[in-house]
Amino acid sequence: xxxxxQSPDSLAVSLGERATINCKSSRSVLYSSNxxxxxxxxxxxxGQPPKLLIYWASTRESGVPDRFSGSGxxxxxxxxxxxxxxxDVAVYYCQxxxxxxxxxxxxxKVDIK
Amino acid sequence: xxxxxxxxPGLVKPSETLSLTCTVSGGSIxxxxxxxxxxxxxxxxxxxxxxxxxxxxxxxxxxxxRVTISVDTSKNQFSLRLASVTPADTAVYYCARASxxxxxxxxxWGQGTLVTVSP
Lengths: 113, 119
Hints:
Shape of chain A: globular
Mean pLDDT of chain B: 96
Number of helices of chain A: 0
Order of helices and strands of chain B: EEEEEEEEEEE
Oligomer: heterodimer
Helix content of chain A: under 10%
Largest sheet of chain B: 7 strands, mixed
């Protein structure tokens, strides 16, 4: 299995400030034949299901605000919220879909400072 | 807009079979992979398995011996059966449709249903 880890476990950021979440996979999720990273990011608010934000490590899902961006390749990835808004309070998960068994990170909780 | 809704018992006794159905509205399931995922405080998000609308399945090896996923295209529904449950199977169970980009990338989720395994 590909094990996904995230850091930090939680962070508190002032409104309008940048939030950065890291995700690491135990094996590369970069598929060499198409040069795509099989890595997605999800946002989960309390009492709601996860919502897909980003796929292929850096492609925003339709309707996702451009303050959300993803970067990284291979085994190390980052989700950045450039200017935190109150509605961004949530838990964020990374997911690899490289292997036939997709796996998720443990989540990072983002709060307002 | 496509919507998914899970339904089924919220309480299952140990050793019995958990059965859930996901009804898809606002769009056809044809052409899509249809997934089940669960979320518990101890295990986080865990992929259970998926089924293609034509019936081909893939399961999490850790659950494979106990899981059956089936599809009913005439009703736009798919179902999960998990046999021989224990309290460790207590979780919120989600159904989700896979994205057009990849059959393991989940772009549309149901609201989830809590299933408790208890005598």
